[in-house]
């Protein structure tokens, strides 16, 4: 957990340093992340919200169906997913005249997921009937939002699963969502201040 905390502090420090020193992606301004992005997830039914914080950094939360699999077994049910994202390839996408609106880019994120016992559909983990499960780790993800609002997000990572009443352990995190962004997005062209 100490290593995860250090990674979060380093990513945050890079963003703050960039803001203070006026480091830019291109030209004399900064790439504009969507300040607010709401998404309806269709593949794993649910809702997502992403808030742009600093240059290339955002936080997101999603509530929907999910699956956890780690050393003791698996859980399928309602999950709350939280991410602190750092988008690292906006500059390259802009140089290739690719879309960056709708937070279209690749990212590294500190990840947390909570699987609630009250909304669990199935599990093969032995233990009490009312256990919760939490995931804490890092993921690498790709998100794309297209002009009509179609959105996909794929991520892969690993971390620690902490069981509340059941055994804890390490395991992977694989996420994939297809959805639609009903909110207005910025121009497909990069925006500079």
Automatic annotation (TrEMBL):
This is DUF3575 domain-containing protein. It comes from the Bacteria. It comes from Maribacter confluentis.
């Amino acid at each position: 957990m100490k290593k995860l905390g250090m990674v979060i502090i380093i990513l945050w420090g890079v963003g703050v340093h960039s803001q203070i020193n006026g480091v830019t992606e291109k030209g004399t301004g900064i790439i504009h992340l969507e300040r607010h992005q709401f998404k309806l997830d269709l593949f794993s039914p649910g809702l997502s919200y992403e808030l742009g914080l600093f240059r290339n950094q955002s936080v997101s939360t999603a509530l929907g169906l999910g699956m956890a699999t780690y050393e003791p077994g698996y859980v399928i049910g309602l999950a709350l997913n939280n991410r602190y994202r750092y988008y690292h390839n906006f500059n390259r996408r802009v140089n290739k005249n690719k879309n960056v609106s709708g937070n279209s880019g690749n990212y590294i994120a500190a990840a947390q997921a909570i699987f609630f016992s009250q909304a669990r559909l199935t599990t093969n983990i032995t233990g009490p009937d009312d256990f919760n499960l939490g995931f804490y780790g890092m993921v690498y993800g790709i998100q794309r939002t297209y002009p009509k609002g179609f959105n996909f997000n794929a991520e892969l990572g690993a971390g620690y699963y902490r069981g509340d009443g059941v055994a804890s352990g390490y395991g992977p995190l694989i996420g994939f969502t297809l959805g639609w962004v009903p909110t207005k997005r910025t121009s497909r062209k990069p925006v500079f201040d």
